[in-house]
Structure formats: structure tokens, C-alpha cells
């Protein structure tokens, strides 16, 4: 929340979404957010794809979304229980499609221009630091996604 407030003036007036524990988005809300945006940010627990329906995503066409940033893969005891209970009802192939590389490929196939994603489990603090670097370089310095990822890697 602090990072969003810090960079608020640099955002467009069309910034919209769900913040914090306001509510859990429905599949229709996920679809609306992804299809009506030029950039999409997910900052949350576990795998992004554990929050959206795989069948729904692969049927989507979202070419207006030029950039998806997935700052996910944060685990808590509560999120681990939720994901474990959810994964029981999924096939091994389905779970494999929720991994970071596969998620990036699926988003790319739906028309997303670029995907920036974490590759392994991390903490909220580490993702907050990544978000700060992303916003500073995108919004304050006007750097490209490639330049910003290069900064994140170093």
C-alpha cells in the first residue's frame, strides 16, 4: 500500500483493481481486469494461476494487455493449507501448468506482450523490494521492461 501511495501521482487515472483483503476476485472480475488493462500487476500469495481458472485463461484473448507483472509465490501456513486443499482436486498436468514458466507461456499465448514473474518462492518483503524497483524504473525513470528486468537481476 505504501508503494502504491508513493507512486500514485505517476499512475494514470484509470488505475483500478483489488487491493489487500478487500475481497477475493471472482473469475469474471479477473477477466474484466485482464481484458481492460494495458498492464496488470498481481502481488499475492502462492501461484497466480491458483487464483484463476486455467480453462478460463486459455480461452481468453487479451492483446490490449502489454505487460503482466506477477509478484506471487509467497507462502504462509494459511496459504499453504489453501493451495494443498485446492491441488488435491487437480491433475499433475494441471498443477504443472501453474508453474512460473508455464504461466508466462499461457499468458503470452493469450496475447500478453510481456510477462515479468518470480521464479521461486519468496517473501512479501522481497516482492515489495522488487515492486519498488519496478515502479521506480518504469514510472520515475521511464525505463523499458527489459531494462528494468536487467536492473532486478543485478
From TrEMBL:
This is CFA46 protein. Transmembrane segments: none annotated. InterPro entries: CFAP46. The lineage of its organism: Eukaryota, Metazoa, Chordata, Craniata, Vertebrata. GO terms for biological process: axoneme assembly; cilium movement involved in cell motility. The gene is Cfap46. It comes from the Eukaryota.
